[in-house]
C-alpha cells in the first residue's frame, strides 16, 4: 500500500488519510479507506480497480476556510487535520477481481467502502 501526498513532508502530520481495511467473503472483497474531509466532494474521487486486484484511489482534499461569528476567516497555524491538496492511495487486494462488478459507498464518517466481486464467480441473484 502506498500513499502519495502532493504536499511537503510536514503535511503528513494531519489526520490519517488512506488507512485501509480489507475483508473477504466467498464471492467478494470489501475494502474500506479512511478519507476524512472528502464526503462532500465525492464527485472528485476517482477509484480505479484492476483485474489483478490493484486499487488506485485519487482525489483532492478541499481547502476549508474557518469563519468566525464575527465574519473573520482564520488561517491555521497548526495543521493537525488532513492538509488540503491532491492525494493518491494504491494497494492490492488478495486476489483477482472483476473490475466491472463493484459497489462503492461513501459513509458519513469519512470512510469510502467498496465491495468488488472476485474474478470468475457468479453473483447470486437476489
Automatic annotation (TrEMBL):
Concerning InterPro entries, the annotation shows: HSP20-like_chaperone (IPR008978), IDM2/3-like (IPR039321)
Q: Which GO terms describe its cellular component?
A: nucleus
Question: What name is this protein filed under?
Answer: SHSP domain-containing protein
Which species is this UniProt entry from?
Answer: Brassica oleracea var. oleracea
Q: What is the lineage of its organism?
A: Eukaryota, Viridiplantae, Streptophyta, Embryophyta, Tracheophyta
